[in-house]
Amino acid sequence: MSRSIAVLFFQATTRTHGNGLLGSSDATTQADPWHQATAAAERIPHRLGHGDDAAAQAHLAAFGEALDVLPLLAPQTVRSQLLQAAEAFERATRSRVQAEHHHARALRGAVRAMVRDPAPKDGATLAMFLDAAILVVIAAARWHQLRHHDQQVAAARQTLIHLQAAYEQAAAAPLAGLAQRRPPQQTVARHIRQAVPEHSEQFTEDPAFGALTAVLAEAETAGHNPERLLQQAAAQRTLDDARSPARTLAWRIERLSARPAPRACSELRSREGWQAA
Asked: What angle do CA 122, 123, 125 make, to 5 degrees?
């Protein structure tokens, strides 16, 4: 690859928690870097459409570095597709626009942390990131197309083919596992109709509806408000480019529900206040 994976890997594995982009706060060191990287990637399509070209180029370059790292961390079954995706996207990042790299610090910091904390072997975390990555590449192709960057558009479309193939492989097992849990779908469908009525039919008819119901049911069991989670996940980023909106929403809710539930946070604060008193 054109970018130096070895340099990035060295920087990631030798960086200490007290220095550099990751900082030394407990919140940063304890957060899941794969979730952080996914959240940062999900913000890129919006920023491509609403920022200046220098900032956009910075986000695309940082995303390209994330794709470079993935083959080092992914299972052997998807490594070839990810390598080809990274090579294709390197061509999609070539531009005369000078990138202002400080705009992409969040993603770069998360990528360095990902190298130290490989994705769990169940494939769900990798699939979650790839789902967001596909939307980034679609947005990148659109951004280049508006600027008549024909070669970059072609490279982005080639990247998309490889990422979608890798995603289908990575997501198959975790999505099937979620669907097999079979929570009561009528209850979840009611939550969807109340929380996001404009998307309810789209979600309930999606083949991934079973996975969506499973993550919502588990989030509710953990103390989260399922309707609030649905609204938050749907409002994060547009679902217009998602091949499977229910699948994309399921990954978002999976990530959002990994945070402590508001009820649990309130109980913890109460206990801490009582102990301090």
From this structure: 110
Tens digits of per-residue pLDDT, 233-259?
Answer: 888 777 777 888 888 889 999 888 887
CA dist 161 → 13, 90, 146, 236 (Å): 31, 15, 21, 25
Read off the pLDDT band of 152 (50, 70, 90).
Answer: very high
The pTM of the full predicted model, rounded to 2 decimals, is 0.75
